Amino acid sequence: MILLSFDIEEFDVPQEHGIDLPFEQQMAVSIEGTKQILTCLNKYQVHATFFCTANFATHAPGIIQNILQGGHEIASHGYYHSSFEKTDLQRSREFLEQLTGQPVEGFRMARMMPVDEKDIKNAGYTYNSSLNPTFIPGRYNHLDKPRTYFYKEKVLQLPASVTPAFRLPLFWLTYHNLPAKVYRWLFYRTLKHDGYAITYFHPWEFTNLKAHKEEWKLPFIMTNHSGEEMVRRLDDLISFLLKKKYSFATCKEFKQHIQAKEKKSE
């Protein structure tokens, strides 16, 4: 089972490099990229989970409706992408539920930063996908954390997939910079080993970041294979996995699958 997920947020990456990009432009970039993603998913009729900031949803309600109409899941990515307060956990969930008319069960912290699991539970979430169980210099070191799903504070943890050996992360940055066939082979091997795989991308990856590389001071590892090349890579990944006869599911559906399996084994 494959769990594709996308963190849809205001495009604030340039701020990390000292560039103050106007909010309207941040939104325009992310909206453009989300449309590209939805077109690709609709082509293959596969479903995914969109972890969305309440701030993005406030300014792009039409995109949220398009996501729902495509049969995808909306989960929370916090209220804002560049700031966080504990109250944002419940506030973002309640706002997204009001906007979508559907329960919001999942959460992912911006930039996969740590978040207290008790706070996640108290805010009303049933699963959390805020862990990348690998080592990324200058960001985090989670080599001591479980690679596959587990429970903490009775909240289901859905770590991003890493390879069984060496814990190479299989997230967006890897697919940008590894040869595409190598990434897909590693993803497939991990999928066979674990029985499922979860990866994540961002909408701005599917826009032409190369055109703004100098202006926004974006590093090569982010702009490499962005835009149409990344659209093609997503298309190729989905096509490759469908040919292998694997199914796609939302995180919520995978949680239900786990619970059904656990109930059966009781």
Number of strands: 10
The end-to-end span amounts to 23 Å
**Which descriptor suits the 3D outline?**
globular
Low-confidence stretches: none
Instruction: Give me the number of helical elements.
Output: 10
Compressed to H and E, one letter per element, the order equals EHEHHEHEHEEEEEHHEHHH
Structural class: alpha/beta
Quaternary organisation of the protein chains: single chain
The main β sheet shows up as: 4 strands, parallel
Q: What is the mean predicted local confidence, pLDDT?
A: 96
Share of helical residues? 40-55%
Strand content: 5-15%
Radius of gyration: 17 Å
Largest sheet strand order: 3-2-1-10
Can you give a write-up of this model?
With 266 residues, the protein is of the alpha/beta class. Helices cover 42% and strands 13% of the residues. The protein contains 10 helices and 10 strands. A 4-stranded parallel sheet has the order 3-2-1-10. The chain has a 4-stranded mixed sheet with strand order 4-5-9-8. A two-stranded antiparallel sheet has the order 6-7. The longest helix has 22 residues, at 23-44. The protein is globular and about 55 Å long. The protein starts with a strand and ends with a helix.
List key phrases describing it.
266 residues; alpha/beta; four-stranded mixed beta sheet; globular
